[in-house]
């Protein structure tokens, strides 16, 4: 994690599973962008922080699987995540999770 500040407009980037999971479990009001490290559009998905998809390791994923090859970015709104992604990559695109979007 690059920052520990929790101010309202803060965008947090996680690179450690334990810190990441502790954060999403205590900040259910926010949103999580998940992607690979180069923000490839087809791998970029935004979830609500409450979504199981971003909290439960699936298949044969190993501990650390959330953040070793992927990034997890937290913000209080989808708009904040979008502007973060566009700063990193000008052609950034994302889709919303089919499980949690719109709930
Ligand atoms: Zn989701």
Instruction: Describe the strand arrangement of the main beta sheet, using strand numbers.
Output: 1-4-2-3-5
Query: Number of helical runs?
Result: 2
Quantity of strands, as a count? 5
Largest sheet, in brief, is: 5 strands, mixed
| Distinct ligands | zinc ion
Proportion of strand residues: 15-25%
Distance between the termini: 28 Å
Order of helices and strands: EHEEEHE
Residue-averaged pLDDT: 86
Helix residue percentage: 10-25%
Radius of gyration: 12 Å
Derived from helix and strand composition plus strand pairing, the structural class reads: alpha+beta
Number of separate domains: 1
List low-confidence stretches.
Answer: none
- What overall form do the CA principal axes indicate? globular
Task: Describe, in plain words, how this protein is organized in 3D.
This protein has 103 residues and is an alpha+beta fold. It has helices at residues 17-26, 78-88, and strands at residues 12-14, 31-36, 45-48, 70-75, 95-96. It has one domain (12-96). A hairpin with an 8-residue loop joins strand 2 (31-36) and strand 3. It is globular and about 30 Å long.
What is the topology?
Layout: E1 12-14, H1 17-26, E2 31-36, E3 45-48, E4 70-75, H2 78-88, E5 95-96
Parallel strand pairs: 3-5
Antiparallel strand pairs: 1-4, 2-3, 2-4
The structure holds zinc ion.
Zinc ion is lined by residues 47, 51, 53, 97, 99-100.
């Amino acid at each position: 994690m690059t920052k520990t500040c929790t101010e309202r407009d803060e965008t947090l980037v996680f690179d450690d599973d334990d810190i990441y999971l502790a954060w999403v479990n205590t900040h259910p009001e926010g949103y999580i962008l998940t992607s690979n490290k180069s923000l490839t559009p087809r791998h970029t998905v935004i979830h609500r922080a409450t979504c199981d998809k971003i909290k439960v390791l699936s298949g044969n994923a190993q501990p650390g699987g959330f953040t070793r090859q992927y990034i997890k970015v937290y913000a209080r709104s989808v708009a904040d995540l979008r502007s973060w992604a566009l700063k990193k990559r000008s052609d950034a695109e994302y889709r919303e999770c089919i499980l949690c979007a719109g709930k």
